[in-house]
Write the structure tokens for this entry.
Amino acid sequence: MSHTIKDQEKLLARVRRLKGQMEAVERALEARQPCGDILNLVASVRGAVNGLTVELIEDHIRGHVAGHESQGEREVGAAELIEIVRRYLK
């Protein structure tokens, strides 16, 4: 079973909180709040996205790279992770 299915409710809760944070940024922009306030909101969104990303990467490593799968499955999991990290760090 995929970790994203097993932990679906927890992950969806994080995504919903992110959505709420983005809506707060939108409201702040519409209300013409000071740029410092908006930057703080955006920084909190970035932190939340990074936290979600770290959790997903960690679960991927545990489940698909270091898990009890076959060597071929571990190699595929590692290759997927390498591509994801490269894309993330661009």
